[in-house]
Amino acid sequence: MAGVNFPFVIGNWKMNLTPYESETVAKKIVAGLPPEGLPIEIGICPSYPAMERVQRVIAKTSITLGSQNMFWKEDGSYTGEVSVRMLKDMGCHYVIIGHSERRIHLRETDYEVNKKIRLALQYGLVPILCVGEKFEERQDGKRDVVIMEEVANALKGVDKFSQLIIAYEPVWVIGRGEAIEPNEACSAIGLIRYTLKDIYPQKTIDDKIKLLYGGSIDDKNITDFVDNEEINGVLVGGSSLKPEVYIGMINNLAKHVS
């Protein structure tokens, strides 16, 4: 369904599920969706060891494979890292870059995020750039500055691409089970759009960049967040690990946009 203006539902499975468990969850998701597809761009980002099994399950469906990360070099002596060429060979379409958990726990910098985005685009992958403020930054009134700087720094020198996704994920909400108000998400994503206007022509923003929200989304609140022109879809964590909830999210959104 690439190229059609459908909303996105992309699951980030993080460091959960063994390869066998991942395959089982993927099979349940596929079985719960209509074979003819839905007006939704669906993605799953499993762990590296589970990718091959998940890809086999979703290969003949409308679900697309993604990665949770990649290294910023094409090849070389970088023990434990995974290259963009490896992801491409495994059938990946999306790659999450700059997730707050990597920025916080693995000290990933804006410089590294920028290099990863540029390399991903060079190989034809669609980056999902994650941006968002920490709780203390929010309390100090720095939300806008943090978001604008993360977007601008990540996209330095990024001028040629067919598609780019940016996900706003307020760090203080992730994993808490309680989402922010939809109007607050719209405000942050509106700020991202405003920042992009200093970088790209309006036509590029409209045609090639999609903006998602992430943070405690489930089958009950998904339509509240995608029920506007600002938000083009969602990046989902814990809820995407539960097949019945993930299927419910997709089906509810499909009914909403039909």
Radius of gyration: 17 Å
Please, what is the average pLDDT? 95
The main sheet comes to: 8 strands, parallel, barrel
Give helix and strand order, one letter per element, not per position: EHEHEHEHHEHHEHHEHEH
Number of helices: 11
Q: What would you say the CATH architecture is?
A: Alpha-Beta Barrel
Number of domains: 1
Q: Overall 3D geometry?
A: globular
CATH topology: TIM Barrel
CATH homologous superfamily placement: Aldolase class I
Percentage beta strand: 15-25%
Terminal-residue CA separation:
15 Å
Structural class: alpha/beta
Strand order within the widest sheet? 1-2-3-4-5-6-7-8
| Quaternary state of the chains | single chain
* Beta strand count: 8
Question: What do these coordinates show?
Answer:
With 258 residues, the protein is an alpha/beta fold. The protein has one domain (8-257): Aldolase class I (TIM Barrel, Alpha-Beta Barrel). Helices cover 41% and strands 16% of the residues. The protein is built from 11 helices and 8 strands. It has helices spanning 19-31, 51-58, 84-89, 100-105, 110-122, 135-139, 143-154, 182-196, 202-208, 222-226, 243-257; strands at 8-12, 41-45, 63-67, 94-97, 126-131, 164-168, 209-214, 233-236. Strands 1-2-3-4-5-6-7-8 form an 8-stranded parallel β-barrel, surrounded by 6 helices. Strand 1 (8-12), helix 1 (19-31) and strand 2 (41-45) form a beta-alpha-beta unit. The longest helix has 15 residues, at 182-196. The model has no long low-confidence stretch (mean pLDDT 95).
